[in-house]
Amino acid sequence: MKSPSVDLHGVRHDEVASVLHKFIWKNWAYKDALLIITGNSGIMKKVVKDQLKISSIRKIDDDVPGNWGIIKVWLDN
C-alpha cells in the first residue's frame, strides 16, 4: 500500500498549518510513514517542522536518500 502524501507545492507558508492539520487528521489511523512533499525550499521545510512539533509526531525524518524534498513522519497513535 502506498503511503499517504501531501504535496505542498503552491501552498503559501501561512497556509501550511491548516493543510498539515487536515492531512494528519485524515490519516491519523495510518500506522506507517506519511509523506510530506516540500520541495527543496529550506524555508518550507522549517515551516513544516515547526508545525509538526506542535502535533503528536513520533518521528520526523527529513533525510530521505535520493529525495531531499520529502519529509517522512510517523504519528504517535
Helix content: 25-40%
> How are the strands of the largest sheet arranged?
1-2-4-3
Can you summarize the main beta sheet?
Answer: 4 strands, mixed
Overall number of structural domains: 1
Report the top-level CATH class: Alpha Beta
Distance between the termini: 19 Å
Q: Quickly count the helices.
A: 2
What fraction strand? 15-25%
Q: List how many beta strands DSSP finds.
A: 4
Low-confidence stretches: none
Please tell me what the overall shape is: globular
Mean pLDDT: 90
**Series of H and E elements:** EHEHEE
Using the coordinates shown, work out and report the CATH topology: Ribosomal Protein S8, Chain: A, domain 1
Structural class: alpha+beta
Report Rg. 11 Å
CATH architecture grouping: 2-Layer Sandwich
Provide a concise account of the structure shown.
By secondary structure, the protein is an alpha+beta fold.
Describe the overall structure:
- The chain has helices spanning 16-26, 42-54; strands at residues 5-7, 34-37, 57-61, 70-75.
- The chain is an alpha+beta fold and 77 residues long.
- It has a single domain, classed as Ribosomal Protein S8, Chain: A, domain 1 (2-Layer Sandwich), CATH 3.30.1370.
- Strands 1-2-4-3 form a four-stranded mixed beta sheet, with helices on one face.
- Helix 1 (16-26) links the parallel strand 1 and strand 2 (34-37).
- The longest helix has 13 residues, at 42-54.
- The model has no long low-confidence stretch (mean pLDDT 90).
What are the main properties of this structure?
77 residues, alpha+beta, Ribosomal Protein S8, Chain: A, domain 1, 4-stranded mixed beta sheet, 2 helices, 4 strands
